[in-house]
């Protein structure tokens, strides 16, 4: 069973920009909550969107609604109730008691999905740490086994060490151990970055709301076989691949975990070692699902998380916005969006379809221009002993013309990036000295 509480109280604006936060439609929130449940193979027997005018400290929902849902749970023999909203430990405990079923809030559900999706040791460590931090605040149960013995000290001869205290201490020990292991992971990643900087390939990170098509784009650009399915959080562990752009510029492309609204802060903290790939990237591609009705709100959530990581989403020299899934738009909406932008944004969009390949060559050219500079027109004259460079020129530039000279050498006119120009000069210098 999936319950989507919609609070009538308007969300606060962004304190830094004084810009009001965009609200999502109830339908979009409902579809996302059901998608999250289905992402771990849950089959909801009943879903409901509930308007909450006055959130109750004890149960979040009103007593009438709680009683109504308890009857549905009983009749449907439901074992799990998902509440698409953060719940306090007390609210979760009270709802479990009233509904007579296990209750999972939005944070807990996201953690369950992450736990199932993690494949690498690093991903598993990060999920485990987030799980333990989440569980630490949930040790508020009042089951009978939680008191192991009666103590003789105190005014009333109260209980001795409770199971809660023992569990909390055990959790804290595990958290400390995981943090130590993740610190080792962080140092290893730092070493890898240092090695990459010695061979200075620019790093391009793809970020976006979950299910925006990041892995599909990653596969399209690199030819990799990363899992790409139409589901929330289809992939979790980061993937890096080296790819050569049209004019020969090599870059490292990074596919990261998808973002989502109300992403738990301790989850961001746990995944910081992974998300630092975004922080260290030379260029960030913010991929948007432009076919989603809530694309503007999703973009705002991504920008907020980037800001939390220290990345300025408004820095157009480093962050480029790309609209994906334009193949899912009808002709009228497509023409309107490409002409007018979203929310009055008149900036010409970079519109692509990662699934069909439309616009990918344009995107590659823009990436190459950002990391290597504008194309320059060059005329290179090679001596006979330098003809070994001809093949390299064809692979790393657009050859406009070629003239065979009488001395056996060639003169090549080509368009190449600034970095390719520098590489040509370096290769010619080495040839001359050799």
Low-confidence stretches: 141-158
Which of globular, elongated, flat, extended, rod-shaped describes the shape? elongated
Helix count, DSSP H or I runs of 4 or more residues: 14
Nearest-angstrom radius of gyration?
Answer: 27 Å
Q: State the secondary-structure class.
A: alpha/beta
Strand order of the largest sheet: 6-7-5-8-9-10
Mean pLDDT: 80
Percent in helix:
40-55%
Largest sheet: 6 strands, mixed
Please tag this protein with its features.
434 residues, alpha/beta, six-stranded mixed β-sheet, 14 helices, elongated, cytoplasm, metal-binding, coiled coil, GTP-bd, magnesium
What would your notes on this structure say?
- With 434 residues, the chain is of the alpha/beta class.
- Helix content is 43%, strand content 17%.
- It has helices spanning 26-38, 63-76, 89-99, 106-117, 121-136, 163-198, 214-222, 265-270, 272-279, 295-308, 331-340, 360-372, 390-396, 418-433; strands spanning 2-7, 47-52, 80-83, 102-105, 203-208, 239-244, 250-255, 283-289, 319-324, 350-351, 376-382, 398-404, 410-416.
- The strands form three sheets. The chain has a six-stranded mixed sheet, sandwiched between helices. It has a four-stranded parallel sheet with strand order 2-1-3-4, with helices on both faces.
- Helix 10 (295-308) links the parallel strand 8 and strand 9 (319-324).
- Helix 4 runs antiparallel to helix 5 (121-136) and helix 5 (121-136) runs antiparallel to helix 6.
- The chain is elongated.
- It starts with a strand and ends with a helix.
- Residues 141-158 have low confidence and may be disordered.
- Monomer. Associates with the 50S ribosomal subunit.
- Residues 1-27 are annotated as: Disordered.
- Keywords: Coiled coil, Cytoplasm, GTP-binding, Magnesium, Metal-binding, Nucleotide-binding.
- Pfam families: GTP-bdg_M, GTP-bdg_N, HflX_C, MMR_HSR1.
């Amino acid at each position: 069973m999936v319950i989507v509480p919609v609070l009538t109280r308007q969300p606060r604006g962004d304190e830094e920009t004084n810009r009001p936060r965009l609200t999502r439609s109830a339908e979009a929130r409902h579809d996302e909550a059901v998608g999250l449940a289905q992402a771990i193979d849950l089959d909801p027997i009943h879903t409901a969107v509930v308007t909450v005018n006055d959130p109750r400290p004890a149960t979040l929902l009103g007593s009438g609604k709680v009683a109504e849902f308890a009857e549905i749970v009983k009749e449907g023999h439901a074992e799990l109730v998902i509440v698409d909203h953060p719940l306090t430990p007390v609210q979760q405990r009270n709802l479990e008691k009233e509904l007579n079923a296990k209750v999972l809030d939005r944070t807990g559900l996201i953690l369950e999905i992450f736990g199932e999706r993690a494949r690498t040791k690093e991903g598993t460590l990060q999920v485990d740490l987030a799980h333990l931090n989440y569980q630490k605040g949930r040790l508020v149960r009042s089951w009978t086994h939680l008191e192991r013995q009666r103590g003789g000290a105190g005014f009333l001869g109260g209980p001795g060490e409770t199971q809660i205290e023992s569990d909390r201490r055990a959790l804290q020990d595990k958290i400390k151990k995981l943090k130590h292991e993740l610190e080792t992971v962080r140092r290893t990643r730092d070493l890898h970055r240092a090695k990459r900087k010695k061979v200075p390939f620019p790093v391009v990170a793809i970020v976006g709301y979950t299910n925006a098509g990041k892995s599909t784009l990653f596969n399209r650009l690199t030819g990799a076989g990363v899992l790409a399915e139409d589901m929330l959080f289809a992939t979790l562990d980061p993937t890096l691949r080296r790819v050569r752009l049209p004019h020969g510029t090599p870059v490292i492309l990074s596919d990261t975990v998808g973002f989502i609204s109300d992403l738990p802060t301790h989850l961001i903290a746990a995944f910081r070692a992974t998300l630092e790939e975004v922080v260290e990237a030379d260029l960030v591609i913010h991929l948007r699902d432009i076919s989603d009705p809530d694309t503007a709100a999703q973009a705002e959530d991504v920008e907020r998380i980037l800001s939390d990581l220290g990345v300025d989403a408004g820095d157009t020299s480093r962050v480029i916005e790309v609209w994906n899934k334009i193949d899912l738009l009808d002709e009228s909406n497509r023409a309107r969006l490409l002409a007018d932008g979203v929310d009055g944004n008149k900036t010409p969009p970079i519109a692509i379809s990662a699934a069909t390949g439309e616009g990918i060559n344009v995107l590659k050219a823009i990436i190459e221009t950002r990391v290597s500079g504008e194309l320059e027109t060059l005329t290179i004259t090679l001596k006979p002993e330098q003809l070994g460079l001809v093949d390299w020129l064809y692979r790393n530039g657009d050859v406009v013309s070629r003239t065979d000279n009488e001395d056996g050498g060639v003169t090549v006119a080509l368009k190449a990036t600034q970095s390719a120009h520098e590489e040509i000069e370096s290769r010619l210098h080495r040839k001359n000295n050799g």
